[in-house]
């Protein structure tokens, strides 16, 4: 079945369309009644598969132009059903990846993921947040005799960027569902381990669900408990406190009382430092903006391996665009976004991790932080 | 004398956001929501004793007519040293925008015939959803916030509408519709979310105008 989009231009066209609808008993999606069809207004009709050819011919005969809005209605129906497709392994017991999940559900998901995929996944403690929530990361590693290089990815350093943890969860699911059948993924896993931190700023994330959807920072108190939160992405030890920050707790870019003043920052930094000789790539996922950002934010001086960084980023952006046409810009934070110091990405590069990137996912401002859940799937698919 | 800028350069992106705000105020409505698809080209000119002028080529789309491309050129002049005056913006849209006459009239009649004044909050909701009957109101919020964004843009700011916190219709004795909005604007450079109170008047033939606007007190 197909849904056609038509804008009738004349009364004659309107009449012909009304006739078509009643003769073939077509399913009008917009407007609801044939008598409401008007010249100059959108018309959406669903045409059952056996009639598609005939209806299109009739439209052509009457010089009525149309566009195929939905080429396969059944496919769309199937995609919007929240169930795992039968050809895929059930990696997480029916978890719905096309919805946003609160923190307790993400904790349950991690447990389930490790349970169902214990040959590949182990869950580890990274540290604790200010409010004493446990920070876990998932290690996806195929047993092997050789030591493998690591790709680290963290999501949710900023509480309101909900699409970011949604992507980390999606990413894990995709790897686990397809590693046996997808040659690219299986080759990755032969040579690399993935370490994924689905939510870095757990306290902030919970706060954005319970109190303030647009909260950004952590939830550590300052100034005698009259002010809350450090911008964790200004708190790392990379030119800390030099540019693009505030020393005032009430600011959304408050960089904390010193580099790594926050437990969340320390938890991540300590771990990455301990593994740094094996980490090939550091990825940190944010929203919004549709950008792949390279070092640095604290200076416009290009990093030593800028050419390589840019080339890889450009190839990634091109691959991403190839999926749904979504365009991403590539460049250093300082040149395409703003100046900032103390970012995790800058820090990772400065301690020697060669490929360090910040991803700013969809969109470019239309919905901003409040990205509709129906964009989770396309955003994640293109970013994969 | 105008210097070419890479179109991904941050100053070009900021000027584009100001231009889009202005354009939304001028041409937006319940039946039309313009958004930026791509900044194609940007040039900048430093004018002695006057300020910085950006020449932009923008590719936009109407959310209600996504298949079509709306091309436009914009000039954004930020006045030197002035912290309190809005940038001068001029926008030229190439070609015709899709007519919204019928949709506008229908919306107008629907709101006028409401027994109780319309009230709503959190548009979109936390999960990004907007109930279909509130979509035209959401687009009017784009118009209202477009005005505020234009008026408050500088070379060091980039504003987007983050969410409509609250909207209340106020019935009037004249023919305009009045909506009192509280909009939350996200400012990219400071990362702040700034609440603004905006009173928007709208009429299907006469279009929109902001009656008053002010930064709201510290949020909830």
What is the strand and helix layout of this fold?
The complex is a heterodimer of chains A (384) and B (220).
Chain A: E1 2-6, H1 11-24, E2 27-30, E3 43-47, H2 52-61, E4 66-70, H3 73-79, H4 103-116, E5 121-128, E6 134-140, E7 149-155, H5 163-178, H6 183-191, E8 192-197, H7 202-210, E9 221-222, E10 227-228, H8 263-275, E11 279-287, E12 291-294, H9 306-324, E13 329-332, H10 333-336, H11 344-350, E14 355-361, H12 376-383
Parallel strand pairs in A: 7-8, 7-11, 11-14, 12-13
Antiparallel strand pairs in A: 1-3, 1-4, 2-3, 5-6, 6-8, 9-10, 12-14
Helix pairs in contact in A: 5-12, 9-12
Chain B: E1 3-5, H1 10-27, E2 34-47, E3 51-62, E4 65-79, E5 88-93, H2 101-112, E6 119-123, H3 135-152, E7 159-170, E8 177-187, E9 193-203, E10 207-215
Antiparallel strand pairs in B: 1-2, 2-3, 3-4, 4-5, 6-7, 7-8, 8-9, 9-10
Helix pairs in contact in B: 1-3
Task: Kindly describe this structure.
The complex is a heterodimer of chains A (384) and B (220). With 384 residues, chain A is α/β, with parallel strands linked by helices. Helices cover 34% and strands 20% of the residues of chain A. Chain A has 2 domains: 70 residues, Alpha-Beta Plaits (2-Layer Sandwich), CATH 3.30.70.340; 257 residues, 3-Layer(aba) Sandwich (Aminopeptidase). In chain A, α9 links the parallel β12 and β13. In chain A, α5 crosses α12 and α9 crosses α12. Chain A is elongated, with a radius of gyration of 25 Å. Chain A starts with a strand and ends with a helix. With 220 residues, chain B is α+β, with helices and mostly antiparallel strands. Chain B has one domain: Nuclear Transport Factor 2, Chain: A (Roll). In chain B, β9 and β10 form a beta hairpin. The interface between A and B is medium-sized, with 36 and 33 residues.
């Amino acid at each position: 079945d197909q849904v056609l989009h038509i804008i009738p231009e004349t009364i004659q066209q309107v009449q012909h369309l009304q006739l078509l609808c009643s003769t073939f008993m077509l399913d009008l999606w917009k407007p609801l009644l044939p008598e409401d069809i008007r010249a100059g207004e959108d018309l959406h009709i669903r045409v059952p598969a056996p009639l598609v050819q005939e209806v299109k011919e009739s439209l052509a005969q009457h010089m009525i132009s149309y566009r195929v809005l939905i080429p396969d209605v059944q496919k769309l129906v199937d995609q919007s059903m929240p169930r795992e497709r039968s050809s895929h392994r059930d990696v997480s017991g029916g978890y719905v990846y096309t919805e946003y999940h609160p923190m307790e559900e993400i904790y349950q998901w991690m447990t389930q993921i490790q349970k169902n995929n214990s040959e590949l996944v182990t869950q580890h403690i990274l540290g604790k947040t200010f409010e004493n929530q446990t920070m876990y990361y998932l290690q996806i590693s195929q047993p092997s005799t050789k030591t493998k290089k690591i790709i680290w990815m963290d999501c949710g350093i900023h509480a309101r960027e909900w699409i970011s943890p949604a992507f980390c969860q999606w990413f894990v699911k995709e790897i686990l569902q397809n590693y046996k059948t997808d040659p690219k993924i299986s080759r990755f896993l032969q040579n690399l381990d993935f370490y994924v931190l689905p939510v870095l700023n757990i306290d902030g994330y919970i706060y954005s669900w319970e109190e303030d959807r647009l909260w950004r920072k952590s939830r550590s108190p300052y100034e005698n408990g009259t002010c809350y939160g450090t911008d964790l992405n200004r708190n790392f030890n990379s030119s800390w406190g030099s540019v693009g920050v505030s020393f005032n707790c009430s600011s959304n870019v408050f960089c904390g009382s010193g580099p790594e003043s926050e437990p969340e920052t320390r938890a991540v930094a300590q771990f990455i430092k301990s593994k740094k000789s094996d980490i090939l790539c550091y990825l940190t996922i944010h929203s919004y903006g549709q950008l792949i950002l390279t070092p640095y934010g604290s200076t416009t001086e290009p990093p030593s391996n800028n050419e390589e960084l840019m080339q890889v980023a450009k190839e990634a952006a091109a691959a991403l665009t190839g999926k749904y046409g979504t365009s991403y810009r590539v460049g250093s934070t300082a040149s395409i976004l703003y100046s900032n110091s103390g970012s995790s990405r800058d820090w990772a590069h400065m301690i020697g991790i060669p490929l360090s990137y910040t991803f700013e996912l969809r969109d470019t401002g239309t919905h901003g932080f409040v990205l509709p859940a129906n964009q989770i799937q396309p955003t994640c698919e293109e970013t994969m | 004398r105008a210097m070419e800028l890479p179109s991904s350069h941050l100053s070009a992106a900021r000027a584009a956001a100001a231009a889009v705000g202005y354009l939304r105020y001028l041409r937006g409505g319940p039946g039309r929501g313009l958004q930026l698809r791509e900044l194609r080209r940007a040039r900048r000119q430093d004018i002695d004793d006057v300020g910085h002028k950006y020449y932009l080529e923008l590719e936009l789309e109407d959310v209600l007519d996504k298949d079509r491309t709306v091309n436009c050129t914009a000039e954004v002049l930020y006045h030197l040293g002035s912290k309190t005056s809005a940038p001068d913006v001029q926008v030229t849209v190439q070609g015709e925008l899709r007519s919204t006459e019928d949709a506008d009239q229908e919306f107008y009649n629907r709101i006028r015939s409401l027994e109780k004044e319309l009230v709503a909050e959190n548009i979109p909701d936390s999960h990004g959803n907007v109930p279909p009957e509130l979509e035209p109101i959401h687009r009017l919020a784009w118009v209202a916030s477009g005005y505020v964004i234009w008026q408050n843009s500088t070379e060091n700011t980039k504003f987007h509408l983050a969410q409509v916190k609250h909207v209340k219709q106020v019935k009037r004795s004249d023919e305009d519709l009045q909506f009192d909005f509280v909009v939350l604007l996200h400012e990219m450079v400071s990362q702040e979310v700034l609440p603004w109170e905006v009173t928007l008047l709208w009429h299907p033939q006469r279009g929109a105008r902001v009656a008053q606007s002010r930064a709201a007190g510290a949020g909830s």
